[in-house]
Amino acid sequence: MNLPPRRVGSSPLVRTTFIGVFEDFDSYRTTPAQIQAAPEKLKVRFPKVIRFRRVEATIYGRTEKYQFYRLAYYVAGKRMARSFKSYTEAKTEAERLVREIADGSQAAALTGGQARDALAALERLETFRQSTDRRFSLLAAVSDYVGALEKLNGRSLAEAVEGFVQTVAAVRRKDVAEAVEEFLDGRRHKAEAKDGKRAQLSASYETHVSSWLREFGKTFPATALCDLTKDHLNLYIKPFTAVGPKNRNDRRAAVRMFLAWAARQDYLPVNHRLFEADGLARETVEAGDTDFFRPDELRKLLDHVEAELLPVLAIAGLAGLRVEEIMRLDWADVWRVEGHLEITARQAKTRQRRLVVVCPALAAWLLPCRETTGKVYPPGLQAFGRKFVKLRASLEIPTRKNGLRHAFCTYHFALHANENLTAQQAGNSPAMIHAHYKGLATKADAEKWFQTAPAKQTSA
């Protein structure tokens, strides 16, 4: 207990620390003083001052209320007091203390408990040094500990260490390019169709992702994933100014997918915050004008296309199926449900089954194929693309990306004025239909589109 300083005249008196008197007296009192004091005959005038150089220690005699000799001295700016059973013990200790203090030692300022703690702490530091070959002073250890506690806002150092071990400390160093190859290798099987089933990932999509991520890995040679910063990601996306915002967004999505995987593999800490990089922020993509084929262009395409390719164009334009969905379509799916095309979950882009109404014009175009079996278009997607480009060029019809499907959605919505119905037929969302296909064609144009039947049907 530290008492406020008393004043004598104008000078304050220094506080006194009574070791053991106010701080668990029996624990800190010297061992002889813990034994009941015995009568002692002395010819000493108290208080007795013991001096060495400029250092003094004062011994106070026993009183009726306190049957021990008290030793008082100054060290490190504090007045200390200790109790002894006999004057001889008090005097011996006083002579030792004044010499020790005069030599510059401040150990006498420690209480018994503090001294024991200090020795135990030094022993702990020595054990740590022997096991790790790292040396710390007691002051440095305490300073680091207190400094850490000041930053933890009431949390314990043990909690902070546990959190660190679960995040940063558990991270394994992995080169970016090596991690990219590991990631791609783990996804490769998802782009492979097995046992007649549809692959989990589009082969075309996986090809793009692989190209983008390998390019990402080459951007940071000899760099570990855990060393990446937001600045790295900003620099990566910066050169892609020649491509459109959608392409940049697709690249960002691939990188984000890769980084999320890396965190699950402990190549990145789970709290890495790389997703906050400005370079990974998604850009707003302004929707371009929806371009689609006109009824007279559909007529020219269907009248001049080769027999094998005709069903693909007719289904795409008059039923609105995506070309990729048609490539997965069997003739059994065309005839299974009367008056409808059945797109199974395995065939649909959205992996959701749907039935598409077959309009009379489409039924007429497909009628010659009634006995056909197998795939609707066996040559596949690439062969279709080459032949369709050649056909358009020969007919001088301009390129319109996804023009047949866009035409179906545009004209179907114009004919029925029902975005829910059009969305159900196209395998899309009503919001998408409303946003991209509303008000692009008249009902008259829509009727003309869906009446594009074979010439002999028209003349009949």
> What's the CATH superfamily of the largest domain, by name?
Intergrase catalytic core
SSE order, as H and E? EEEHEEEEHHHHHHHHHHHHEEHHHHHHH
By secondary-structure content and strand pairing, the structural class works out as: alpha+beta
Overall geometric form = rod-shaped
Strand content: 5-15%
Strands of the widest sheet, in order across it, are: 3-7-6-5-4
- In the CATH hierarchy, what is the class of the largest domain? Mainly Alpha
Approximately how much helix is present in the residues?
40-55%
What's the CATH architecture name of the largest domain?
Orthogonal Bundle
Question: For the terminal residues, how far apart are their CA atoms?
Answer: 115 Å
Please state the CA-atom Rg, rounded to the nearest Å. Answer: 45 Å
- What is the tally of helical segments? 20
The strand count comes to 9
Please, could you describe this protein's structure?
With 460 residues, the protein is an alpha+beta fold. A hairpin with a 2-residue loop joins strand 4 and strand 5. Helix 11 packs parallel to helix 16.
Short synopsis of the structure:
With about 450 residues, the protein is of the alpha+beta class. The protein has helices spanning about 25-30, 85-100, 110-130, 140-150, 155-165, 175-185, 205-220, 230-235, 245-265, 295-305, 310-320, 325, 330-335, 360-365, 380-395, 405-415, 420-425, 430-435, 445-450, 455-460, and strands spanning about 5-10, 10, 15-20, 50, 55-60, 70-75, 80-85, 340-345, 355.
